[in-house]
Amino acid sequence: MIKYINETTEYLQNRGFEKPEIGIILGTGLGKLLDDVTIIHEVSYNQIPYFPTATVEFHKGKLIYGELEGKKVIIMQGRFHLYEGYTLKDITYPVRIMNQLGIHTLLVSNASGAVNLEYDKGDLMLIDDHINLLGGSPLAFKGVSKLGERFADMSAPYDKDINTKFKAIAKAHDITLREGVYASMLGPQLETRAEYRMLKILGADAVGMSTVPEIIVANHLKLKAAAVSVITDKGDPDNLHPVDIKEIIEVAENAEPKMITLFKELIKTL
């Protein structure tokens, strides 16, 4: 993997991806952040050596280098999921590349379903901790210790200083920002009534199909990391209705301005 990482990094450096400070994974609810980015270079995933290719129709597939709020950023427009058939190493490969290019902070967004029924559709949730229910680890491979400490500490996977800043920004801009535990499940099927009950017992506030692998690898690489979910549906096991993916996307788009405000104001401070 070290050989692959070096080749990919060299490819991007030769195309002008120079010393980014912050990596951003644009999940559902943050797509229009690019409208505020001064784009310097961009390259499609399928042109980057050893990079996976996004297959979900509403996820794009470009790596973008530019400037946002005075900071050099590298942005993944489109992310990867286990349910697409990738491995956990594939999914987290871009985080390793962003680290090699020089980032010190990784910021992530996603869409999730509420397990905590006090949450409403369109709310934002700052992730304080997570539960990995994906059935594997992105660190479980031979030679991982050459890339970082094998037994990565996960006592505080989401940077407390960044989370404190997020909460202050939300308060200043009158944005409701929940704080809770995110559970990541394989998917792509959505949860059953029994699974929602299980997640509540486990202590989850929201559930999705992403983010946790990237955060684990960010901690493995000693990067600061933070993530925000947009709540797009509610998993009430006693009153569970079929989920409309179009509605989920619409809810996420409506919440987008709040998410963008949080991220832009935070980046100013990093």
From TrEMBL:
GO BP annotations listed = nucleoside metabolic process
* Any GO MF annotation of the entry: purine-nucleoside phosphorylase activity
The UniProt record lists the EC number as 2.4.2.1
- InterPro entries assigned to the protein according to its UniProt record, in alphabetical order: Nucleoside_phosphorylase_d, Nucleoside_phosphorylase_sf, Purine_phosphorylase
Q: Which GO terms describe its cellular component?
A: cytoplasm
The UniProt keywords, alphabetically, are: Glycosyltransferase, Transferase
What the record says about family reads: Belongs to the PNP/MTAP phosphorylase family.
PANTHER family documented for this protein? METHYLTHIOADENOSINE/PURINE NUCLEOSIDE PHOSPHORYLASE, PURINE NUCLEOSIDE PHOSPHORYLASE-RELATED
Q: What does this protein do?
A: The purine nucleoside phosphorylases catalyze the phosphorolytic breakdown of the N-glycosidic bond in the beta-(deoxy)ribonucleoside molecules, with the formation of the corresponding free purine bases and pentose-1-phosphate.
Its name, as the record gives it, is Purine nucleoside phosphorylase
Lineage in the entry?
A: Bacteria, Pseudomonadati, Bacteroidota, Flavobacteriia, Flavobacteriales
